[in-house]
Amino acid sequence: MALLVLDEHLLEVAANRAWRALAGAPEGESSWLNALAPDTRLLAVEQLGTVLEGTDLAQVEWRLARDDVSWVLVGATVHHGVVGRRVVVAALDRSMSHQREKGLERRVAVDPLTGALTGSEFTRLARVALARRHAGPPIGIGMIFVDIDGFKAVNDRYGHLAGDELLTALAARLRAELRPGDALGRMGGDEFVVLCHDLGGRDEIHVVAARLIATAAIPFALGGIDIEVAISAGIAMAGPADTAESLLDRSDTAMYQAKRDGGGRFHHHRLLTLPQRL
How many C-alpha atoms does 176 have within 13 Å on its Cβ side? Predict the structure, then answer.
């Protein structure tokens, strides 16, 4: 157990060897804050301030300023003695468990084949973007739903491994055509979807969709063979009442219209507006 003792001004009074080893601080180094990552220091001071006010601290995480980005699980309490109040901080190294948790979160959020966001993570991100839009100044948000034309024929002719290689290569190309801040998700199979933020209007999302279609039309060199495909894209701009799910539905509907129109193109879904009564 790593132990650190601070006075009522949060100046270091004592620390055991376990704290020195955990913090990477040499003997005689008395600035405990220097052991913490810059983005953790203010938070730690605020938390220990509440301990001095009488509220014990239990199981919070501090990040250390070490090259391996170590994390410690911290608890703290205040003791009253003849020399005044002392804050006793106890810390446990949880770097490995923290890294495992972060790795698990990433595996849940990212499609392992293509590196795109999973459908659930993409939907969560879209909800956050729409909430931000409703809470602040109006910003344009849109989705582009993408599907490969004739993907089944690729699998049937070249095999599923080639199909997987195609999906991986296509995702990389699509990602390269996105604007900063846009996100790519994979909804399953050969369906991808793009979330576009801060759009100035429909022309801007049309440009993005056209770039996606153009990059997909370049032959893919996979396993010594050139595979040519096209994609159909459906576009929907968020209206005042749209949810993440409704935006996905509308862009999906538009994508199927693009397929019916011949494929290799995009179709923009428009919200119907009721005529005003006179």
Answer: 10
Residue type, 270: R
pTM for the structure as a whole? 0.62
- Label residues 32-71 b or e (16+ Cβ within 10 Å = b): beebbbeebbeebeebbeebbeeeebeeeebbbbeeeebb
The model's pLDDT over 98-126, given as tens digits with 9 standing for 90+, comes to 555 555 444 558 888 898 989 988 998 89
Q: What does each C-alpha distance from 37 to 63, 128, 190 come to in angstroms?
A: 6, 28, 42
Residue 19 CB-density burial (10 A; 0-12 exposed, 13-18 middle, 19+ buried): buried
Q: How many residues are there in the chain?
A: 278
Closest by Cα among 115, 249, 126, 264 to 186:
115
β-strand 117-118 against 183-188: which pairing, if any?
parallel
Residue of 77, 75, 69, 3 lying closest to 36 (CA atoms): 69
